[in-house]
Amino acid sequence: LRTEASLHDALINKEFVLHFQPKLDIQTGQLIGCEALIRWQKDGRLISPMSFIPVAEETGIIIPLGQWVIEESCRTIKKWQNEYNFSLPIAVNVASQQFEHSSLVPDIKKAALRYQIAPELLEIEITETSLMNDVQLAIKKLDELRSAGFGIAVDDFGTGYSSLSYLRHLPITTMKIDRCFVSDLPKESAIASTILMLGKQLDLKIVAEGIENEAQLTWLQERGCLIGQGYYFSKPLPLNIFEDKYIKQH
Ligand code: G
Ligand code: G
Ligand code: MN
Ligand code: NA
């Protein structure tokens, strides 16, 4: 069912939608950005990216699909600027296959140019594992993206096999503490503490993902973590609901 052909048809038939999850300054509660998360709207149901992104990667459909995510995110940034006079950064997830494809950097630059948005408003999230597949290629691509002004976040940090010596050479701006380490807080805190310290040393923004309760939030606030995301604040929301809650009365 979820084959190359059906994903291709879904793209043509505009069955994909983006949901948006807020990122907050956890010291002040201020909204500072959001993450775009794709869903497949199929026969009135929403299909999770976990069930089609792997197929999209295997079949190569991830290239036009990922391009759509980038375009749609840029279009949404522009829409919020035009309709609500609000510039909110959007972070988009980039799959391994997509990151390694030669069209990624030109696609991102073209989309930002087409919608006339400042590159600082678009952040690319790449998993630690994708970056470590081919470190030399990663450095080259990230240098291109950084010098063009786009933000770069390492997603799911702590779950892959980062070489810390390479990490130092990657021009990244943000590290996202994987939610499995946040869910252990405050009882098990060794990894989260270490990532926070590493972020400070490397002068990176640290985002704590998957904050689900007050105790996790308090632990992070007390240790100087600045940015948070998670169900405690909000689940990923459809565009119209995200706009009602966060954009219209910013
Ligand atoms: O939103 P949700 O929890 O269902 O996401 C599940 C997984 O799918 C996460 O790992 C997330 O990063 C990934 N994902 C969500 N949206 C996109 C997307 O637009 N592109 C890619 N490559 N992955 C995505
Ligand atoms: O791999 P990535 O970090 O991009 O995955 C993001 C996904 O994590 C989101 O799509 C969302 O569905 C999920 N997520 C976001 N916040 C929470 C949370 O607080 N708890 C859990 N269990 N999942 C979350
Ligand atoms: Mn992500
Ligand atoms: Na993540």
Automatic annotation (TrEMBL):
<protein>
    <submittedName>
        <fullName>GGDEF domain protein</fullName>
    </submittedName>
</protein>
<feature type="domain" description="EAL">
    <location>
        <begin position="1"/>
        <end position="250"/>
    </location>
</feature>
